[in-house]
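Table S2 (text version). Query chain:
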Amino acid sequence: MLLLLLTGLLAGILGGFFGIGGGIIIIPILIYLFGFAQHMAQGTTLAAMIPPIGLMAAYAYWRAGSVDIKAAALIAIGFFAGGWIGGSLVQYIPEISLRKAFAVLLLLVAVKMWVGK
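Corresponding structure-token output:
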């Protein structure tokens, strides 16, 4: 339960830092840390992000049985707080450092997904 809340917090912070969608953070975490199937990870992530986006897509995943409502709610709470924290902290990071950190993040996620299970 706490790890799901922290997943949302991390996604919010990194989303605030890099201006990216939570999916690039939450989906790999749900798959590799929590053992979610790809469809369940995607559906749960969409449900977590319902207030800003994805209502109809999340509904379609939910109808197919691919949404964990409890996990989505906890992630959404952490994501809300983390977005504020990340957006506030990133103002102190130089642009060149931020660009390089973003590139490293994308590369690490791509490599993990390419060579993972």
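Notes on Table S2: DSSP finds six helices and no strands in the chain. The CA atoms of residues 28 and 106 lie 12 Å apart.
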